[in-house]
């Protein structure tokens, strides 16, 4: 809502006006003192961040944040989620309202250069169009003159303008502030197409279309985006913690460590697994965490593969393939770094 | 000695004011310094350089020509143009409808009075945002898709994508032409007043000469600005209609919603103003043989205006500001555009500041204009 975001922008300005010296303490100390991590969440994208029917936050982005909560507190529920629109999320991070921004945020140069730092991509993604099948459109070139609904506060606004220019399509964009209004405009027929991340489209189609089979999704560009949790500039320790908490999830998958077998793996003779699980100490302490932080993460959340299947894959209504989000060893882009 | 200084009332009040000013200045300085430090610590860019960078994002409709390859500054102009357009359209239409509603409330006819009363109660008590969403939902669900558009008149099409009407395409510097035409009219008006003092303006020859001079000026402008006109008819091309005049569902929903909401308030202001004119005025009008309608428009309303204008000004100012609720229905007025600019540039402070300044300028202009008008209609005691 307009009042919401203008008010919010005002609050941000006020935050920057008044906040003095709040940055002196490290984010880790602030979080420990507060007793919980505060993360941005989507305003309702099933699969990435949305509360379930009991009000418990679920999704890939949400669990990326929970991994940090486990790393620090050994408790996945010591995380609080603030639903923020595309507009609000970056200023909220810059002003210290939230500690981490894991919210389908595309890693771009302009954002990186302007007050935030990106950690490790937790999802690789195409921007896609969702179109009613009845229009008979299957690729970008067919879309000449189409009306396209876009949510403001995303990179897709620029993508849609680029596509329109590149293929001389004359796309008519209709821009909304809330994702709900944007989706509604597609379903009512105001727009011919909805453009956003393909997985978010799959989520919309699976959970909100009257008949999901009536819509098709196809890539809008040949270029992939890296959706990446971000942190504020100026606190390297915190960036490392967020980075390695996510690394633990993909490394566990590479090592074949799952939520079910993590206790058995403690007895593994493999020195890399020993270092990873903290049987051989040193890794956690270097980050300012418990030496068993990676063990705790896998124990409470499973590995990245389990997280993916639960939220976006076979165990979810979205039924997405791993695709580029598989481990490099399976032909994907997920590449764990060395835990040593 | 000191006590005499302390007792000096004039000195004391001066000292107090200087202290207050110093405190105010120090607070501003502290806030600015704090902000700049904080921005630097967070390595956030500062400044208005971004205005000259390419904007890259689309704006769905705009009366100022805009393309994603234009600058952020141009995007601002497009947003301001849309805000001014919607504000002007709504103020004019809401005033007319408000007059009808206000007079309807005073009608002796119970059905008319009752309907107007119900209208005012309903529209004043339902939040504007709800009304906007209602109209938008109505326009985007009740109407047929473009391929089955209604054709109420030949060449006019009504569908989910809006109302398309036959129009005219203008080449050349249309803006310059309009500006020149208005400037010419003002000069002509001024000149006519001066000429009138010397000659008899009602003399057909003088009037014809002046009219011919203005017509000549228009022709010069027309040629000078390279104006060319082409008829443009809407036709279905692929997904949507192309060509012609277009009223988008976003603009229409916003206009309907704002006009209806605002007219309920304006109606009450007008009713109150008319009621406040003493009954004796009506009786006096009747006594000199005027009809009720003549009395209303020639005697009562001119007197009511000086009661109506100040609250009406407030209402107009609210309307300009209410136009920012357009984000809910996707009409790209300045608020929505600035929201996007903030996201693309990440520079919230500069953009919010610019937004404040623009709205302050628009509101101050409206209020100055209304004050000028108020001074004109105010009771002059001689």
What this model shows, in words?
The complex is a heterodimer of chains A (340) and B (382). Chain A has 340 residues and is α/β, with parallel strands linked by helices. Helix content of chain A is 41%, strand content 17%. Chain A has 14 helices and eleven strands. A five-stranded mixed beta sheet of chain A has the order 8-7-9-6-10, sandwiched between helices. In chain A, strands 1-4 form a two-stranded parallel sheet. In chain A, strands 2-3 form a two-stranded antiparallel ribbon. Chain B has 382 residues and is mainly alpha-helical. In chain B, the strands form three sheets. Chain B has a three-stranded antiparallel beta sheet. A two-stranded antiparallel sheet of chain B has the order 3-4. In chain B, strands 5-6 form a two-stranded antiparallel sheet. Chains A and B meet through helix 1, helix 4, helix 5, helix 6 and strand 8 of A and helix 2, helix 5, helix 11 and helix 12 of B.
> Any idea of the CATH topology of the domain at 72-146 and 247-377 in chain B?
MetI-like fold
Radius of gyration of chain B: 27 Å
| Major beta-sheet overview of chain A | 5 strands, mixed
Oligomer: heterodimer
Short description:
The complex is a heterodimer of chains A (340) and B (382). With 340 residues, chain A is of the alpha/beta class.
Compile the SSE list and pairings.
The complex is a heterodimer of chains A (340) and B (382).
Chain A lengths: L1 H17 L8 H8 L2 E5 L8 E2 L5 E2 L1 H14 L5 E5 L2 H9 L14 H5 L2 E3 L4 E10 L14 E5 L4 H11 L5 E5 L2 H10 L4 E5 H11 L6 E13 L2 E3 L3 H20 L6 H4 L5 H7 L5 H5 L5 H9 L2 H8 L29
Parallel strand pairs in A: 1-4, 7-8, 7-9
Antiparallel strand pairs in A: 2-3, 5-11, 6-9, 6-10
Chain B lengths: L1 H6 L1 H33 L30 H34 L4 H16 L2 H14 L15 E3 L2 E4 L1 E5 L2 H25 L5 H21 L3 E5 L2 E3 L2 E3 L2 E3 L1 H28 L2 H9 L4 H31 L11 H12 L2 H30 L5
Antiparallel strand pairs in B: 1-2, 2-7, 3-4, 5-6
